[in-house]
Design brief:
Elements: H1 4-20, H2 26-32, H3 39-51, E1 55-56, E2 65-66, H4 68-76, H5 86-97, H6 102-117, E3 120-124, E4 133-142, E5 145-152, E6 157-163, H7 170-184, H8 192-196, H9 205-224, E7 230-233, H10 237-240, H11 250-256, H12 259-266, E8 275-278, E9 290-297, E10 305-312, H13 317-337
Helix pairs in contact: 1-3, 2-3, 5-13, 6-13
Length: about 350
C-alpha cells in the first residue's frame, strides 16, 4: 500500500497531466500543489512511484506521466466523483424531459453525454429480456386482419400486423384483449409464454385458431426484440485528442464500429453499479489506449441497460464519472415516469 503522501503526489500528477497534457516534473508539482514537503522529498516519492509502476518517464529528461496502474489506483482511491453544478443538472433535466419517445430519449442521451464529457458516448437500449409488459393493444383493421401493439415498462413500443385464419368479431377481440392484459400486464417477458399457453382453450372452437395466431405473433415479437441495440455518438471527439493514441486512432475507431465489442465494454446490464475499465483492462486490443466509464440505468432499482463513455486513458475521471452517473439517473427517472 502507498503512503497517504505518495498517494497525494500520484493524485497531483494525474490531475496535472490530464489538465496540461504535458509530462509532470517535481518542480511543477511543488509549485502548483500544497504538498507540504520539499522538492527533494517529492522527487524521492516520484522515484518510488515509478519503481512500483504507477508513473513512467515517456522520454529522457521529461517529467512523468501516469500508467494504467497509476490511473487505476487514482480511480479506486477517489474521494468522490465531481458533482455537476445546479445549472448543469437543470440543463440535463430540461433537455431529456423534452423527449417524445424512447428513440428520442436514447438519441438525446447520446448527444448529451458526448457534449458533457467530450468523449464517445454509448447508450444501450433497454432490453426486452429485462422488461415487463405495460399494455397489449389489439386493433381490428379488417374482418381477418389485426394489429398487435406491445408497450413495455421502459416505453418501448412494438407493432405487428396479423392475418387471421378466419374473421374475428369485435366481441371476441375485446375479450382476448382483456384476458391478455389481465394475465401479462406487469409480468416479465420471460414469464409470458407460460402465462398464455392455455389461453386458446378458453375460447370458442371457431376462435381458437385466431387466438393461437395472435399469441404466436406476440411470442415471436419477444424473441425478435431480445437482440441488444446501441446508439453511439461523439466519435469526432476522438480526433481532438488524437495524440493520446500512441500510433494511430484507427484501431479505436474500428473497435467502436463493432456492436459486440461495445456491449462487452459496457458489461452486463444487470450490474447497476459504475464500472471503470482502464487501458489494458479492456480485452479488445484496439481499445488498450482507452478507458471506459459505464453505469446501469433503469426505472427502479434494477438496471435495464447500460450507458457510458469511451475516451483516452488521459481523461478527467472525477468529472466523467459524475456526468455519466447524473445522466443515468435522469434517464432512469424518465423511464419510470413515461
Amino acid at each position: 500500500m502507498l503512503s497517504e503522501r505518495r498517494l497525494e503526489v500520484l493524485r497531483a500528477i494525474v490531475q496535472d497531466y490530464v489538465g496540461t497534457e504535458e509530462p509532470v516534473g517535481s518542480k511543477a508539482l511543488t509549485e502548483r500543489h500544497q504538498l507540504g514537503v520539499s522538492p527533494a522529498t517529492v522527487r524521492n516519492d516520484m522515484a518510488a512511484l515509478e519503481d512500483e509502476g504507477f508513473i513512467a518517464q515517456p522520454h529522457t529528461s521529461a517529467g512523468r506521466i501516469p500508467t494504467d496502474k497509476g490511473y487505476r489506483l487514482f480511480v479506486d482511491r477517489l474521494a468522490g466523483v465531481k458533482p455537476l453544478s445546479t445549472p448543469e443538472r437543470r440543463a440535463i433535466q430540461n433537455f431529456l424531459d423534452a423527449s417524445v419517445d424512447l428513440d428520442d430519449v436514447v438519441a438525446r442521451t447520446v448527444r448529451l453525454l458526448a457534449q458533457l464529457t467530450r468523449q464517445v458516448a454509448v447508450v444501450q437500449y433497454p432490453s426486452l429480456t429485462r422488461s415487463t409488459v405495460r399494455h397489449v393493444e389489439l386493433l381490428s383493421l379488417a374482418p381477418a386482419r389485426l394489429m398487435l401493439v406491445l408497450i413495455t415498462d421502459t416505453g418501448r413500443v412494438e407493432q405487428r400486423m396479423i392475418d387471421c385464419p378466419a374473421p374475428f368479431g369485435e366481441m371476441s377481440l375485446a375479450d382476448l384483449r382483456a384476458r391478455l392484459n389481465s394475465r401479462i400486464v406487469g409480468r416479465r417477458f420471460a414469464d409470458v409464454p407460460q402465462l398464455v399457453q392455455e389461453l386458446p382453450e378458453s375460447f370458442e372452437p371457431e376462435d381458437r385458431g385466431t387466438v393461437s395466431t395472435v399469441l404466436a405473433t406476440l411470442l415471436e415479437t419477444l424473441v425478435e426484440e431480445t437482440e441488444e441495440r446501441l446508439m453511439i455518438g461523439g466519435t469526432a471527439n476522438l480526433t481532438r485528442v488524437g495524440h493520446d493514441f500512441p500510433l494511430t486512432i484507427r484501431p479505436v475507431l474500428e473497435a467502436l464500429e463493432e456492436q459486440v465489442v461495445l456491449l462487452k465494454l459496457l458489461g452486463e446490464a444487470t450490474e447497476s453499479g459504475m464500472t471503470v475499465r482502464i487501458g489494458h483492462e479492456n480485452a479488445h486490443e484496439g481499445l488498450s489506449s482507452t478507458s471506459v466509464v459505464a453505469v446501469g440505468y433503469g426505472s427502479g432499482d434494477e438496471a435495464v441497460a447500460k450507458l457510458g463513455v469511451v475516451g483516452p486513458t488521459r481523461m478527467d475521471y472525477p468529472g466523467t464519472m459524475g456526468a455519466v452517473r447524473a445522466v443515468a439517473r435522469y434517464v432512469g427517472q424518465i423511464l419510470a415516469e413515461s
